[in-house]
Here is the input.
Amino acid sequence: MDAFFASVEERDNPRFAGRPLVVGSDPEDGRGRGVVSTANYRARAYGIHSAMPISAAWRLAEAARAKGFPPAVFLAVDMRRYGAASRKIMDILRHRAAHVEEASVDEAYFDLSPAAGDADEEPREDAYARAIAAARGIKDEIRVRERLTASVGIGPNKLVAKIASDREKPDGFTVVRAEDAAEFLAPLPIRTIPGVGPRTEAELAKLGVRTVKDATRFTEAELYVMFGIWGSELYAKLRGTYDAPLVEEREAKSIGEQETFAHDTRDPVVLEERLRSIADGVHARFMESGFSSFRSVTITVRFSDFTTKTRGTTLAAPAADADAVRFEALRLFMPFLDARENPQRKAFRLLGVRVEKLL
Here is the structure.
């Protein structure tokens, strides 16, 4: 979805139409200590982006206003409304595609490949034509029913499709066929590849690597020596052949959300704010799920070097309130801010929260 939180606000509040919009914590006239959840594209033209400290966003907005540009509107996060919109959009996807992976509140993967029995009967180009028609139908239905725009990427695997979906935002539609995947990826910055964080980028820069094409000169064996098992994965990603499976949850065993930051960070204020926001989003989805309580809270932490850790706790008694999700998530996360869980003081790339043992 395109600038999802801000787009929902614009849709539901016509007075915001055409104005730069920032969704996040209260800027408090530049003294606020929270962060930006999302900004619409007019606000992004001011340099404002998600995970930016709200005080910095305020300063950029004020600088733009001083130059005669429209003042930005700052709004609080309303995860209940965004979650309701997300569920309607996911229902559209599941109605039109047999296999759907809900990656986050505003992003999903869906498989439009021919059925196994048809794979040998349908020419590849016909399969792409059918997928293109189906994806355009999904975009149109989201626009008509939810009055929101989505950007679609079609590719031979999740990695290529994800990168393609970001290519022409907002309201984009990009198709990359399997035979064109390597050429599509080649000119992109190496950081475009999922898993390449600042540390990996710096190591590759020392070797003269700036783009994906630069990195393809290394053999799989050389990348393995540099990065271990992940080096073999990177070799396939660079060529657009890495084919991670679609993950579907047939039965709701947990409810969770995660956020990958635009920029890796160690700022505890930013991290705590984002964790609270994610926890609130999880609780909003839980309240709409039909379950009455949960017994477990788990967090996921991914560092800039792509090391991922999870920590969870089982509650003494079932709970259903937002405070329980926030408290347990923050309690589990605090050791990652010091030497207990993060002795090397790594920056954070992703945070996630989920509730489990649903009743």
